[in-house]
Amino acid sequence: MSEAFSAETRSFDTEVHQLLKLMINALYSNREIFLRELISNASDASDKLRFEALTNEALKGLDQDLAIDVSIDPEAGTLVVSDRGIGMSRDEVVANLGTIARSGTRQFLESLTGDQKKDASLIGQFGVGFYSAFIVADEVQVETRRVGATAEQGVRWVSAGDGQYRIEPCELADHGTRVTLILREEHRDLLNRWQIERIIRHYSNHIAFPIRLTEAGKDEDAATVNDSQALWSRPRSDIEQAEYEEFYSSLTGDTEKPVSWAHHHVEGSQRYSLLLYLPGQAPFDMLINRDEREGVKLYIQRVFIMDAAEQVVPRYLRFMRGVVDSADLPLNVSREILQDSPLLKKIRATVVKRSLDLIEKLAKEGGERWEQFWKAFGSVLKEGVIEDFEQRERIASLLRFASTHEDSAGETVGLDDYLSRMGEDDDTIWFLTADSLKVAQNSPHLEAFRQRGIEVLLLTDRIDEWLVAHLDEYKSKKLKSVARGKLDLDDEAAEPDEAASKLAGRIKRALGDVVGNVQPGTRLTESPGCIVADEHGMTLQMQKMLRQAGQEVPETKPDLEINAGHPLLQAMDGISDDKRFGELSQLLFDQALLAEGGELADPAAYVRRVNTLLVEALAPRAGKDDSGDGQHAASS
């Protein structure tokens, strides 16, 4: 314990002074964090007293009924945070509040990004939280007395954040620490009971000690603001269903009840708890803001640190809600080091496993709740196939698609459903991607499959093009598009005859550079032609989506497959007029593009061709009608 000392004025360490300038001038957008940090410090001091009391008989009893008191005085413009924790000696005050010995200030300054919101969120992770008081305060005064010290050994520390601080002895009747902030005029709107309660509940609601709030001239008794026993820290057997649902509502603001939840504790050398909820409805911007993961909150020793970033929750599970709390994650490290933390990786793996467990259970139950979940979050979950190689097949088993199978009309089916209906010798899961279900159902590519009774999955989500690019196999069965490459559904598929090949060559010459290859094939039974993507090329849907996203798409020439037995193709084969044949070839190609949801290079020209054909088809009939009428008139 320090001996008596004289009052003195000292200068801050250079980097602390740099930090104070930053706090005062640059971080107003996140000003509320100052209260979180002061309460966290008070909680730490109370925890330290409890710890020391375990081995120090002289402290027995002092660790009982600990609380954190917050008082506001709007007239005086002050806010006070006090505790009856371990307190500090004079040397500890100098070490903790005047130098970088324990604050991690250097690392904090090196990690600044220039983004005020992100920079402010780093504060708690570096242990420099005390200095955040200068975001809102003109002057900060700390009065503290170490447990075991006499009343005369109290210490007062005062600073205006101007590069210096004054330290002097003072008499304090009790141990602990009292921090008084004189707020600047522009921040005195915070001295409002509703504001302070809101900030405490948001950041510090689950601190292990009661947080009591009083307002000068209004309160005779302090009112406890927080829920000092965190729900997730309690044994599952002690928690009723209604409590889980109420906590979900308070955590998320969602008026709907959660679908299900998982509550998990890990004890041992690395301790952490998690409480995960599967929500029933999606926020409106979930699909747009892929990087916003505000659903799972990260706590350290029940102190809110941040909305969990990708280290804890992968993007494809951003719809999950809940809490992750660990007593063993360090606060004085940077985000980059946090990403390499073995404990964080373990927590992330547990979040993924428990989340997928909940989804699998819901999928097995099926029914309306599962349909509701899939409609809300299915497109997001599909991202996991692309982003999480380790869980790819497990996530793929949860995916649902429309299908041509007659028994699944109006319902979605999974890949395992498809496999259960495959023949013993079948080795391919067939699919078709399209802009909409209607376009997919009417696609010419399905004709040969319908004729043979082969099921095709219909993929109509925007993400499905990327999905199948990463999911080329499921349980040793290949996934293949019905609209790509050469199609050979019959073992004895005959080569196209010479006449069909000759007609395809003539159409190719007529179309020229607008088409890649023209070839006869076996895909079609009703339509005259269809667009076929290269086996490894970019589909029309992918090109369209990339253009809509403002991406440059390299020019490609789609292939055209013709049904040589179709009446239109047979009629074209008898046309000797090259100009007329060319017009019909272009019309055939344009119709094939439209059937796939493609975009015409010249829609007006397409309309002219159609109108010309209509006139030619109707003109002979009109002429015959006129001639007939004339003959009748003459004879009469």
Strand count, sense and barrel status of the largest sheet are:
9 strands, mixed
Low-confidence stretches at least 5 residues in length (pLDDT < 50)?
A: 100-105, 120-127, 332-337, 627-636
Overall CATH class of the largest domain: Alpha Beta
* Arithmetic mean of pLDDT: 83
**CATH architecture label of the largest domain:** 2-Layer Sandwich
Q: Supply the number of helical segments.
A: 20
Physical arrangement of strands within the biggest beta sheet? 1-6-5-4-7-3-2-8-9
CATH superfamily caption of the largest domain:
Histidine kinase-like ATPase, C-terminal domain
Secondary structural class? alpha+beta
Question: Helicity level, as a percent range?
Answer: 25-40%
Gross morphology is elongated
Radius of gyration: 36 Å
Into how many domains do the coordinates divide? Answer: 4
- Number of strand elements: 22
Approximately what portion of the residues adopt beta-strand conformation? 15-25%
CATH topology of the largest domain: Heat Shock Protein 90
Distance between the termini: 134 Å
Overview of this structure, please?
The protein is α+β, with helices and mostly antiparallel strands. It folds into four domains: 8-224, Histidine kinase-like ATPase, C-terminal domain (Heat Shock Protein 90, 2-Layer Sandwich), CATH 3.30.565.10; 231-363, 2-Layer Sandwich (Ribosomal Protein S5, domain 2); 400-482, Rossmann fold (3-Layer(aba) Sandwich), CATH 3.40.50; 498-601, Heat shock protein 90, C-terminal domain (Four Helix Bundle (Hemerythrin (Met), subunit A), Up-down Bundle), CATH 1.20.120. 38% of the residues lie in helices and 18% in strands. It has a nine-stranded mixed beta sheet. A five-stranded mixed beta sheet has the order 10-11-14-12-13, with helices on both faces. Strands 15-17-16-19-18 form a five-stranded mixed beta sheet. The N and C termini lie far apart (134 Å). The model is unreliable at 100-105, 120-127, 332-337 and 627-636 (pLDDT under 50).
